[in-house]
TrEMBL record:
Domain of life assignment: Bacteria
Family, similarity comment: Belongs to the anhydro-N-acetylmuramic acid kinase family.
Protein's pathway: Amino-sugar metabolism; 1,6-anhydro-N-acetylmuramate degradation; Cell wall biogenesis; peptidoglycan recycling
NCBIfam families in the record: PRK09585.2-1, PRK09585.3-2
Enzyme class: transferase
Entry keyword set: ATP-binding, Carbohydrate metabolism, Kinase, Nucleotide-binding, Transferase
InterPro entries hit by this protein: Anhydro_N_Ac-Mur_kinase (IPR005338), ATPase_NBD (IPR043129)
Record's protein name: Anhydro-N-acetylmuramic acid kinase
Reactions catalysed, as given in the entry: 1,6-anhydro-N-acetyl-beta-muramate + ATP + H2O = N-acetyl-D-muramate 6-phosphate + ADP + H(+)
List of residues binding ATP: G11, T12, S13, V14, D15, G16, I17, D18
Known role: Catalyzes the specific phosphorylation of 1,6-anhydro-N-acetylmuramic acid (anhMurNAc) with the simultaneous cleavage of the 1,6-anhydro ring, generating MurNAc-6-P. Is required for the utilization of anhMurNAc either imported from the medium or derived from its own cell wall murein, and thus plays a role in cell wall recycling.
Molecular function as annotated in GO: ATP binding; kinase activity; phosphotransferase activity, alcohol group as acceptor
Keyword NAD: no
Gene designation per UniProt: anmK
Amino acid sequence: MEKLAVGLMSGTSVDGIDAALVRLRGFGLNTKVDLLEFTTLPFAADVAREILQCMDVKDSNSALVCSLNFKLGYLFADAVKAVCKKSNVSLRDIDFIASHGQTIYHIPKQDGSLVKSTLQIGEPAIIAYEIGTTVMSNFRSMDMAAGGEGAPLVPYADYLLYRSNSKGRALQNIGGIGNVTVIPKQATLDDIVAFDTGPGNMVIDELCKILKGEPFDQDGIWASKGNVHKDIAQSWLNIDFFKMTPPKSTGRELFGSQFTKQILQTYGHLPTDDLIATATYFTALSITDSYKQFIFPKTEVDEMIVGGGGGYNKTLLQMIREIMPNITVLTQEDIGFSSEAKEAIAFAILGNETMNGESANVPKATGAKRAVILGSITLPPNGGKFGGSL
């Protein structure tokens, strides 16, 4: 049975909402997925500021989080309308929406009196009301309830789309945060290894905003002009996170604005292009060092396939290739997929599993005690479509 669905993703880069319109056939590991259309709804500057304020424990407040939850709900609904309009698909034909939401805070491990927990906002009731269809949301919480870190969740979709009988593959996403899914050749779902590698574009983007007044380093141009201070980048790898064995996850709590402020306080005397180049090298180093520590000793990898915005940073990709010359480094586009749409497609796949009462976390990746059905289900105001087996 075919379903039309929209996957929604807003990540740690806080640049906008990705919306992927997909056609899904079947469920489980036999699922077939076609990307019909994709669009990104950029955040207005004031909305991005509110999101970043909510993420900052020093500046956030409950009233702002409450308001932003609903404000983002309307914006997520707008993203659905935009991708459907772009593809000439009626909203009435959408069977379900799978919304990751906007992560505000993520505590993957007990931290003193703070229990491990996660918060994504973007009110699903608003989306369900505005579009008139079922919405899946809150995907990370059930994995955490089962003892996992709630991340990464993309490995299930990675396995479904990219497994190979002849090649070992590493699916490296470079969004705000970097994360990898390792799929050995001829792998079963239980063979997958996945974890966060550290910062993706987050530190680079923050430096570009402060030093250049631009949201990111287009094609890695500024990084290509700067001198890399390898000793400085290497020193940043002394952070405890990089020594932790997987499963592990991280976020803006560790590599956000406070991290960048510390860089500028210590190394602000360096030329701006040098700082951007060094931050870019730090991302490359954090990725490749993770592979050398945790992947290569156990798994033969033939290809790294890069997705996310970092896939468009030519300087970053070149740095990765130079550090790991024996691995073929490709982008999603090189194999006929979309770097931008990858995570939105993944959440549409996760939503489809929820609709069919199937588990979709990978316990080996998240640390959960067992496989669980992910997400919360919000029905539209008048009932509407719900084709699942629950």
